[in-house]
Amino acid sequence: MTDAASRSGAIDTAELRRRTQELLAAHPVADTDRVDFLKARFDAGLAWVHYPQGLGGLGAPRSLQAVVDAELEAAGAPDNDPRRIGIGLGMAAPTILGYGTEEQKSRFLRPLWVGEEVWCQLFSEPGAGSDLAALGTRAVRDGEDWVVNGQKVWTSSAHLARWAILIARTDPDAPKHRGITYFICDMTDPGVEVRPLRQITGEAEFNEVFLTDVRISDAHRLGEVGDGWRVAQTTLMNERVSIGGMRIPREGGMIGPVSKTWRERPDLRTHDLHQRLLTLWVEAEVARLTGERLRQQLVAGQPGPEGSGMKLAFARLNQEISGLEVELLGEEGLLYEDWTMRRPELVDFTGRDAGYRYLRSKGNSIEGGTSEVLLNIVAERVLGLPSEPRTDKDVAWKDLAR
């Protein structure tokens, strides 16, 4: 630690490098089990350096996480397979950190980050997708437990998950935004049924989840009773950043495969396709750099509505780029690798073939908040435009037309 950092008790770049090298010396990558190494990394405060000590962090500036990641990558250290546990990392963890009790933080954050426990998100319902606050899943207090009944839908990774973040209605007499409570649900409990939802790609990465008399201890409630909508906003803001603001290299994401095809297949080129590719390449690079700026803003605080703008751009670009790729490939673009029903462990937006990318990108404008809803958020919270008229804001949920 530098003299200045030592006097202030702050963690600086040199100190993080020293601690990372100590971790590598104590747990040599070649001789240490992957999970054991990840546990040691968490315990050393090098998982999320901006989290508090004892919870995977050191209370250091968020920007310094890149120092640790670079050192460990250079040493060939294993990562925690973030794509497989993205819901836990990007949505559950910041919500637990912000609203959880000390017991909840200690219980859930370490196995979540290590990847021992997969998480899913029980928010959307058949009648409450874009208008999430209209949800009807009920949670009724019974002593120290809550009894939950309802149906959730579009639940990624529910077939793999041990835990779920869940919002349910606890007060039907209150307006819809004020009668919701946030819970942690054990997906292995009796009454939890997961059914696959096969998509246009042939896969079933999504699920519908039925909850029948599921008992959730009040100790697994996040935040105050009736304050679930506010807690859920933390989850949703982080979700949009995690989807739309992922760190990718230049020509990462959808633009990579089509650029590669363009370079390797001159026989497919036309002037019109060239102009469209150039335009989309520039837009993809602008979105990538904007994402970098957004992550830098996160260093100073919590994610804001800017994440909704990034998610909008992510969906539009993926759909336009994948459409261009199919058109570039001509008849080849109409082929599809495999329609076999499968339940993948992770979502790879750019994986498989061009046909898969084209079909899978159609869901980008729905998942994580529909583009229509996100346009409203950007208009109202970023541009400061007047909000749309609302007639249901102060009406008890039970009295709403359904």
Q: What key attributes describe this structure?
A:
402 residues; alpha+beta; 4-stranded mixed beta sheet; 8 strands; 13% strand; disordered N terminus
Describe this structure in words.
This protein has 402 residues and is α+β, with helices and mostly antiparallel strands. Helix content is 41%, strand content 13%. It has 12 helices and 8 strands. The strands form 2 sheets. A 4-stranded mixed sheet has the order 1-4-5-8. The chain has a 4-stranded antiparallel sheet with strand order 2-3-7-6, with no helix packed on it. A hairpin with an 8-residue loop joins strand 6 and strand 7. The protein is globular, with a radius of gyration of 23 Å.
How is the biggest beta sheet arranged?
4 strands, mixed
- Cα-to-Cα separation, first versus last residue: 61 Å
- Low-pLDDT sequence parts: 1-9
Percent of residues in helical segments?
Answer: 40-55%
Q: Give the percentage of residues in beta strands.
A: 5-15%
How does the overall form come out from the CA principal axes? Answer: globular
Task: Compute the average pLDDT.
Answer: 90
Radius of gyration: 23 Å
> In order across it, which strands form the biggest sheet?
1-4-5-8
Order of helices and strands: HHHHHHEEEEEEEEHHHHHH
Tally of contiguous helical segments? 12
Total beta strands: 8
Please state the structural category: alpha+beta
